[in-house]
Specification:
251 residues, mainly alpha, 10 helices
Length: 251
Amino acid sequence: MLALLVLAILVGGVLQRVSGMGFGLVAGPFIVLIVGPLEGVLFVNLAGATASAIILGRVVRDVEWRKFAWLTLSSLVVTVPAALLLRDVSAPALEITIGLFVVAAMTLAVLTTRLRREGAHPVDPEVRWPLAVTGAGSGIGSVAAGIGGPPVAVYAVLSGWDPKRFAATAQPFFAANALAALVAKLVLADASFPSMAPWQWVLLMVAILGSLAIGEVLAPRVSPIAMRRVLIVLAYVGGAATLIRGVVGLL
């Protein structure tokens, strides 16, 4: 189990550093499969927040703080209600929710990427309500599945957000969003972290740092298109596997 967790963290962390997102999408479903839905999502929140906070130190100059504020405030509004809804949800139902969210989010992201290729940007970046809707959707995803990235990625495509500034602004938002979801579930949903020895926790934190270091080296050397394809395939595989196990658990 520990080896699989380390592998999931390494892959997710590398993608997070190279593309600005991907930890929750790629590592999240596999971590849920390994340790369970509620504990797994809580761990994804912790690891994702840690990874984003570390990356922030490298990209802080490109952060658009006004957009960060809109995204964060709107996500915080929905965090507590979403955590309260999780209190009575069964493990299979939560796995189905996570799997569906991953598959739907990736499908939406793939479809909206076509708009980028066509140069179409139907969302005005000066209008604030789409940012608020995006933040709320990301907040719900972070609480339910540990995945807050897809709504922000879709907004970035639809509004023509500069990729470099998007990747930078996403880091403090993902960190704040994940920490808020983590605290809300610990307090309101009776969630708990996976039971592991202290040295195992240290190893997992080292894996997060190692994945970001590897991503730092790979970022200027790998094709963004290739990394995106890897992210899509792994996210679909993990999401589908989590969905199937949830359905089997209900049956």
